[in-house]
Amino acid sequence: MPSVYFYAAQADIAKLLTFVFEETDCRVYEAYSEPGQSLRQFVSPAETLAAYPLDHAGHRASPAQLVLWSPRTGPEPTQRRIELRPGALEEASHRSVLEAWGLIQLLASGIRDQCIECSRLAYNSEARARAWEETSAVRFGPVEAWDWVAVGRLAGRLTYHVRRRLAVGKHGSRPILPAAQAARESGLQLA
To answer: How confident is the prediction along the chain (191 residues), in pLDDT tens digits per residue?
Structure first.
């Protein structure tokens, strides 16, 4: 699965999401719903980050797991309901997940426990989708329904934006975005 790992604080993720909402035709969804709820679609960086505040000095349960879908890349993703064991999560009976071959995943981590955690953009390649088609086509539909050139082009634009436009430094091969760099210079560690 092609991906780019990078260090970003909440202000950096806001800039990335601004690019997504203003410069692409992507729709942004949570990857997994809250227990007992339907999946949410977000319409702005502010709404997204209100649902997933990323910079905390203390413990946070998990990073924001978002998916981006462009109508130019392929069919609309489907929601799948996952039934939960009784008592598994706050007495909720289910949660939902968004599924499709050509989704771009954004794992936005931010700052937790005085560490800048690694974030990630990732997507399926056509080759990977074809390798899994036999076992996942019932849920995801046919691989050939997707415009894989368009998926790669969109993922490339997002990766370029992170690596070339937003990054102000690197840690190994991983870009560091401005707010994360400022946090690092103030004494926080990269996780």
So the answer is: 689 999 999 999 999 999 999 999 999 999 999 888 889 999 999 999 999 888 765 555 578 999 999 999 999 999 998 888 766 556 678 889 999 999 999 999 999 888 999 999 999 999 999 999 999 988 999 999 999 999 999 999 999 999 999 999 999 999 999 999 999 999 999 98
Chain CA centroid to CA 66, Å: 4
- Angle, CA of 130, 146 and 22, to the nearest 5°: 130
DSSP 7-71: E--HHHHHHHHHHHHHHS--EEEESBPPTTSPPPEE-SHHHHHHHS--B-SS--S--EEEEEE-T
What tokens does 62 get?
């998990």
